[in-house]
Each structure stands twice: as structure tokens, then as C-alpha cells.
Specification:
Blueprint: H1 2-23, E1 28-30, E2 33-41, E3 49-58, E4 64-71, E5 74-85, E6 88-93, E7 98-100, E8 104-107, E9 114-120, E10 129-136, E11 140-149
Parallel strand pairs: 2-11
Antiparallel strand pairs: 1-2, 2-3, 3-8, 3-9, 4-7, 4-10, 5-6, 5-9, 10-11
């Protein structure tokens, strides 16, 4: 009986994960830029910081430069990049923006480029969308609704052994 309850719980988590990952998976195309896989990480335990991820594809014939980011739910919204220096991973603020080459993609992901929402002004709710303003050199200002997605952690039970 316990085995069936465990299997149902795992099945429920898998279905929940599939639903949550596809319900917000939209693609937005504006001024030759294609935005997909938009996501703000869920905030835990009243933290005042979180990260955001997306993919930006530049289908234009000339390079585009992401200059600035703004949100109204955090005091600061910054572009960051993770780098490795002397075998130590460091997060650096990219204050001069980033270039997206013509006919290429820039993928914002953990361990690479990402958006940092610093000093959150209000709690962010899972499944809600929040506006983030992207300013580009050529395309100008583009306002996107970014969804907050839950982090699903399956906790493995520790095996206890007595010696």
C-alpha cells in the first residue's frame, strides 16, 4: 500500500512539473527579436532576491544590443554573468549590456547570463506574470510578462543504517 502511495505522489509531481513547464511556454516575436522560455525563479522564505531566465533570438540582419532592464517589483534589475576565475565561479554585473549577434540566440541560464531582481518590493506568486522592461539599442523598449515558475525538488529519503 505504501508503494502505491509513493508511486502516486511521484506521478503527481511529474504531471505537475509537465503542466507548469508548458502552461507558460509561449514565444513572443517583436521587431525581429524572438523571446521564449521566459521564467522568474520562485522566491523562498521571504528572500529579497531572485533570478530570471529566457532565450532571445535575433532574427535581424544586424546585431542587437540589450542595454538596460527594469522591473517594478524590485529596486534593481540587473544583467549578470557567471564566470570562472582561478577555479572559482563568480557572478559579475554586466553594466554595459550585451550584444546579441545577427541571426543568433542568447540563452539566459543558470551558470551563464541571467537577470537578477534585487531587493524585491513585494512577494512574487508562483503562476503569476510580472512585467519586465527590456531596452535595446535598435528595437527600443519591449515590455514582457515573465511568469514565476516553481522549483520542484524531489527529496530523496536518506537511508539510515545502524552499525
Amino acid at each position: 500500500m505504501l508503494l502505491f502511495q509513493y508511486i502516486y505522489k511521484i506521478l503527481f509531481l511529474v504531471i505537475l512539473f509537465i503542466i507548469s513547464s508548458t502552461c507558460f511556454s509561449e514565444t513572443i516575436s517583436i521587431k525581429g527579436l524572438v523571446f521564449s522560455d521566459l521564467k522568474i525563479n520562485e522566491v523562498f522564505a521571504n528572500q529579497k532576491i531572485t533570478s530570471g531566465y529566457l532565450t532571445i533570438e535575433n532574427t535581424n540582419k544586424k546585431d542587437e544590443h540589450l542595454i538596460h532592464l527594469v522591473s517594478h517589483f524590485s529596486e534593481k534589475t540587473e544583467l549578470h554573468n557567471m564566470t570562472v576565475e582561478n577555479d572559482i565561479m563568480k557572478m559579475k554585473h554586466v553594466d554595459k549590456g550585451i550584444t546579441i549577434k545577427a541571426n543568433s540566440k542568447l540563452i539566459f541560464r543558470q551558470g551563464g547570463f541571467h537577470i537578477m531582481f534585487i531587493k524585491l518590493l513585494k512577494p512574487l506568486k508562483v503562476m503569476n506574470k510580472y512585467k519586465v522592461r527590456f531596452t535595446f539599442q535598435n528595437a527600443g523598449t519591449i515590455l514582457l510578462d515573465m511568469p514565476v515558475k516553481a522549483k520542484i525538488n524531489i527529496i530523496k529519503k536518506k537511508k539510515h543504517s545502524h552499525h
